Amino acid sequence: MQSIKDTYQRITDTIVEQLEAGTKPWIRPWRGNTRRSSIIPRRATGETYRGINVIMLWVAGQMFGYEENTWMTYRQAQDFGGQVRKGEKGTLVVKYGTFTPKDHEDDEDRAIPYLKGYTVFNVEQIENMPDRFFSPAEELPGNPVPHIETVESFVQNTGASVSYGGTKACYRPSIDDILMPDRTRFDSEVHLYSTLLHEVSHWSGAKHRLDRDLTGRFGSEGYAVEELVAELAASFLCADLGVAHDPRDNTAAYLANWLAVLKNDKRAIITAAAKAQAVAEYLTALQPGAAQGTA
Known about the structure:
Helices cover 40% and strands 12% of the residues. With 295 residues, the protein is of the alpha+beta class. It has one domain (4-293). The strands form three sheets. Strands 1-4-3 form a three-stranded antiparallel β-sheet. Strands 6-8-7 form a three-stranded mixed β-sheet. Strands 2-5 form a two-stranded antiparallel ribbon. Strand 7 (170-172) and strand 8 form a beta hairpin. Helix 5 crosses helix 6 (221-241).
């Protein structure tokens, strides 16, 4: 059985390898089909993966060209009458949990977190699977930037104050608002909405919201971590809203900063992904009807 340390290190090594190659694995992690149901990776049950597992499966999907987004274990495939093809390589995902030593079973504070890795396969790696696990062969009519009105409504429903003008995109904690460049300055709607969701993700970190540390300056570890959280959260939100994610403003300096953090702390990417998941869930919970949907 692999140790916790090995699992953290394997995940971090995978992300570092992508960044060193100049690829951000959370950017536009889907191919031709952009239907909402097919973007976030799903389990055999239809439940969506979360946090770092989303990123790991996006990486694998890009590396091996999978268009389907359903993943399952070897045994699950067999339970559905399928068989993983000989020679296929699985993808690492993780399960979070805690355990309490026997001599402290009555003390909740003694619970120790653990991270257990296991292997899943994309349905494209499995033979004889039921048709329901695959998308229809025909593509839906193409719209290069689908559901833009949905994004506008999503941001409006959060209650964030957003103003357009100038040349800079930023969240300003001192006055609790988001400043965006004039719309005409963006190369495309894809760029605009990726940037907007990134800044709304920063907005979620205010003390009276999710209370993250927003005090870091560029070049500091705290700044790099918060930028990574916002970038991952924006990628999750773009995927869930059915739009491409391409902020374009993360230069080589950002990549170098992230690499320094990830190499210094092998838990950093997992922590950032978990915080990004919390951001996405917090902003989604602000939408009309969200409470009823989660009951």
